[in-house]
């Protein structure tokens, strides 16, 4: 309703299609090798001037996605100097606000 407006009328098929796309984040899905995903993240990061980072999500039924992020993407970003290799603080608060 927020996106379409309070008076919008859609068909049942449109409703389910919208729900499927929203639930899967299909339009915001990035796929590729670790280097390709890192290239994309760097491109968006530089183009938008964002210094806040990215929110990465996954489908709970696909735990291998998180493993791929940790084992493949994070090392690629570290190699490029885009992801820290160690934490200075001993608490989450110290590490989130260390800059």
What structural keywords apply?
49% helix, mainly alpha
Q: How would you describe this protein?
A:
- The chain is an all-alpha fold.
- Helices cover 49% and strands 0% of the residues.
- Helix 2 (34-48) packs across helix 3 (64-79).
Strand content: under 5%
Question: From N to C, what is the helix and strand string?
Answer: HHHH
Major sheet attributes? none
Give the quaternary arrangement of the chains.
Answer: single chain
End-to-end Cα distance, whole Å, is 39 Å
Shape: elongated
Q: Figure out the total of helices.
A: 4
Low-confidence stretches: none
Q: Which structural category do the helix and sheet elements fall into?
A: mainly alpha
Overall pLDDT confidence: 83
Over all CA atoms, what is the radius of gyration? 18 Å
What percent of residues adopt helix (DSSP H or I)? 40-55%
**DSSP E strands, number:** 0
Layout of secondary structure:
Layout: H1 12-24, H2 34-48, H3 64-79, H4 92-96
Helix pairs in contact: 2-3
Short recap of the structure:
This protein is mainly alpha-helical and 99 residues long. Helix content is 49%, strand content 0%. Helix 2 packs across helix 3.
């Amino acid at each position: 309703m927020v996106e379409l407006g309070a008076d919008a009328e859609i068909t049942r098929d449109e409703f389910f299609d919208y729900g499927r796309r929203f639930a899967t984040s299909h339009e915001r899905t990035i796929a590729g090798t670790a280097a390709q995903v890192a290239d994309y993240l760097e491109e968006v990061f530089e183009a938008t001037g964002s210094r806040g980072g990215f929110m990465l999500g996954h489908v709970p039924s696909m735990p291998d996605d998180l493993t791929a992020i940790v084992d493949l993407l994070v090392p690629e970003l570290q190699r490029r100097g885009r992801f820290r290799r160690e934490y200075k603080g001993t608490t989450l608060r110290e590490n989130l606000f260390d800059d």
